[in-house]
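The records we work with from here on pair a chain with its fold. The integers have meaning only within a learned vocabulary of local backbone shapes. A complete example follows; check for yourself that the lines match position by position.

:::
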Amino acid sequence: MIEGQEDVTWDDWRALAAACEQHRIATLFRSDHYLSVDGKQERGSLDAWATIAALAAVTSTLRFGTLVSPATFRHPSELAKVVTTADHVSGGRVELGLGTGWLEAEHAAYGFPFPPLGERMEMLEEQLQLVRHEWADGPVSFEGRHYRTHELDALPKPTRRPNLIVGGRGGPRSIRLASASADEYNTVNKTAAECAAVREQLEAACEKAGRDPIPLSLMTGWLAGEDRTELLDRAGRLAELRGNPAPPERILDELPESFIAGTLDEGVERLRELAAAGVERVMLQHLLHRDLDAVEQIGRVARGLVG
């Protein structure tokens, strides 16, 4: 999981994708933001779906997805079309994560409306319905509060219908939307115990919706080293990236409990705890995006966990 708004260049993206394929990482996810979430206005961001389509053309096995595309950025018909385009370019290697959007500053800067959360949730619900309809066979007429279509048969259809992920913080409304319309629910920055509680709520919501339980995934921070020395080196570089003058040991101490930070062996143990809590996959937030050695380590850890 790469935070693309933090000055990830096209050369960086190509290097990351190549490293993921080389080290047999299954999927490269990226954020969908236009401004730095750290408030670093000098950092640039390439568009998420344009980047994914371009990377799809220069890779052969790697899957791609967004965590998450804000409902406020694109009309659902346009979103369904760009994802379908990336699907065709990749030969069926894309996933769509959808959420409400939250960074008000980028909406103001780029001129995107930023309605209250309740209205954004309504937009997300309608987008989920409309995107699914447009990917399905046959025409669709849709009349919602925010969006409408008339006898739309959006051709071509995806070569392989993309996995549709709803991103949320474990609240009842996002869980309900996921249980009704998504293929997977992704939550963010939670401990194993918190994930177990979300898993229980998700299973209950799916049962109420008349569906089998859908997978639960987690996006969380990852900072690891072969040993303590390498871990502290990466913690120092993370501090520099964030403009934090604190020493590496303090940086590690100040990370939230949900952040997976430690030696590789300690990271593996944390991942096993998440699996026991019902998390079926983890999107590891790799903040030092030019550190390709860390990508190799993530691939090695993943291969060890799945055998």
Notes: The two ends are 22 Å apart (CA to CA). The first helix runs from residue 10 to 22.
